[in-house]
Specification:
alpha+beta
Length: 306
Amino acid sequence: MIDKKFLLTDDQVVTFIIQGYLLIQPTFRPGLNEEVCAQFDKNGTPNIDLENDPYAEETLNRAPATREVFDHPEVRGAMASLIGAAFRNFGWFCHATPPGGGGVFWHQDDVNIRHHQVRRLTIMYYPQTVTPDMGPTYVVPATHFWNTPTDRMANYGNFRHQLGLTVPAGTLAITHYDLWHTASPNTSKKTRYMVKLYSGRTEEPTAPTWNHDPQKGDLLARRRFHNENPGLCSGTELYKERHLRWVAWQHMKGLLPNSDGRLAAMPIAPGSQHYSSSRRLHGASTYVCTIHGCTAQPLPIWRDQR
């Protein structure tokens, strides 16, 4: 049983639905992050072996301290808030980026099954403070609703609103399984570690599993779903994205589609700025979101422009 004090708020859940990720900094015991790094330094990281170790549990054997990270009540509370308390973990992987390594390509971890619901999460744990030269993970906010073949994504260069996760040690990025992300080149003299956990929903929601305020939560969601545009979408695309946000919110509250396939409509938010807000945000050059004291900062372009 997860204590309610560790569950997310309406505002945090809305933020996750809008941008596709949250950054949290749990109160780990002193020395835990250093212990994880020391264990990987000593034991190395396992190669991916989907035939004999499909869930990469050898990662936990190489660095047993990672179990404590993912079992922390603040981590489990955030996961339960988004995919229900009966979530199932199905993969632990450690990405070690040595000096001179990194720089992959944009991709989604899921298999392009479009449902526009929160069914699977990718949790990225950073046991070190990640600086810009260490090859931080880059994400593209609000791309979790997009369906793009991976072979096409490999040809994409920079995005104006891409964010490098330069974060303090002990930060976890809880991301939607479909969020676009990539590694970047590590030009430092340190190996950068990132431990990735996959987890999925095992049952349909019947009620909110976070600290939901029925009096204020929907009003907050409507206003933010209407006015925020971290993906810098055009007016037409933002109109579609607003609807998908509301569908995800309704699904997480346990309001499933009717038998004839209809979904609950999204009411107009009082005081919504509609397209004026869209145009203003579309013209912005950066988008920075701070959650739990962590900040994802836009960093200098690291790829050749195409």
